[in-house]
Specification:
The complex is a heterodimer of chains A (235) and B (62). Chain A is α+β, with helices and mostly antiparallel strands and 235 residues long. Chain A has a domain of 125 residues: 3-layer Sandwich (Rieske Iron-sulfur Protein), CATH 2.102.10. Chain A is 32% helix and 18% strand. Chain A is built from 6 helices and 10 strands; from the N terminus they run ααααβββααβββββββ. In chain A, strand 2 and strand 3 form a beta hairpin. The two termini of chain A are 74 Å apart. With 62 residues, chain B is mainly alpha-helical. The radius of gyration of chain B is 21 Å and the shape is rod-shaped. The chains are: A alpha+beta (235), B mainly alpha (62). Chains A and B meet through helix 3 of A and helix 1 and helix 2 of B.
Chain lengths: 235, 62
């Protein structure tokens, strides 16, 4: 606002040179209450016929008695509090929507299946249901593990070594869904001593790998773990 | 006191934002706890954790 005093000074100077009749107009242009010479706390209109409504009342009754820093602290505290509550509200709104989309407790309870491994003798298959699909568990004999390891991996359609497919060599756990069109293969059948899919004639070996027939991939391995007390947890 | 707090917390925008987020974090924990207590108090005796001991003997490990 630096130019304003300069301007008013220039106007005042020109007014001094001019005849006295224009002084009221100059006053209106410069609009400085100091020209009136009254006390600066109240504003008085330079125009004639001023009414009560144009007088600015005394606000001192409403002014804060506290310090400026205290007022600023209070003001920013209120702003910050509103911001914090809004942030917490926004966060929990988003969170509730996301939680709403995730699996509910009953679905999670069905998502895991426990199998007692002690009840499965060596050389036997067990089929359990997990998430609506059959899961094959085979307790393999040492001869079967040997057989699975002796296969030339490079010659397979979906090359996977037996170690990649099992966590413990004596336990083979896999989804019993043929990778061709989703039939359930028959255990202990087929040309390779493993599984045989009757729908279109896919042969799987003792590690569940595709060896012959139309299926493109090995039988899928679900996520599973062995618990400490001799149980298998699928899921 | 007031000006010291103001200078530390609100003077710079990033400190104000940090203070607001920290406040939101603390507020949310407190509010959630309070509302959970209110809920549990209103539904006392009706929730599974209240009647569990009648159906499950021992074994808090489930």
């Amino acid at each position: 606002m630096a130019p304003l005093p300069a301007l008013s000074r220039a106007v005042a100077r020109s007014a001094a040179r001019l005849p006295t009749t224009t002084t009221t107009a100059v006053r209106a242009v410069s609009s400085s209450p100091a020209l009136r010479g009254s006390d600066s706390s109240t504003y008085q209109s330079p125009f004639r016929g001023e009414s009560k409504s144009s007088r600015i009342p005394d606000f001192s009754k409403y002014m804060s008695k506290g310090s400026g820093a205290g007022n600023a602290l209070f003001g920013y505290f209120m702003v910050g509090t509103l911001g914090a509550i809004s942030a917490a509200g926004a966060k929990s709104t988003v969170q509730e929507f996301l939680v709403n989309m995730s699996a509910s407790a009953d679905v999670l309870a069905m998502a895991k299946v426990e199998v007692d491994l002690a009840s499965i003798p060596e050389g036997k298959n067990v089929i359990i249901k997990w998430r609506g699909k059959p899961v094959f568990i085979r307790h393999r004999t040492a001869a079967e593990i040997d057989e699975a390891n002796q296969v030339n991996v490079a010659s397979l359609r979906d090359p996977e070594s037996d170690e990649q497919r099992v966590k413990r060599p004596e336990w083979l756990v896999m989804l019993g869904v043929c990778t061709h069109l989703g039939c359930v293969p028959i255990g202990e059948a087929g040309d390779f001593g493993g599984w045989f899919c009757p729908c279109h004639g896919s042969h799987y070996d003792i590690s569940g790998r595709i060896r012959k027939g139309p299926a493109p991939l090995n039988l899928e391995i679900p996520a599973y773990d062995f618990s400490d007390d001799g149980k298998l947890v699928v899921g | 006191m007031a000006s010291a707090l103001y200078n530390v917390l609100f003077r710079r925008n990033y400190t104000m934002l940090g203070a607001v987020f920290a406040g939101a974090f603390v507020f949310e924990i407190g509010y959630d706890n309070l509302m959970n207590k209110v809920w549990d108090n209103n539904n006392r005796g009706r929730q599974w954790k209240d009647i569990r001991h009648k159906y499950v003997e021992g074994g808090d490990d489930e």
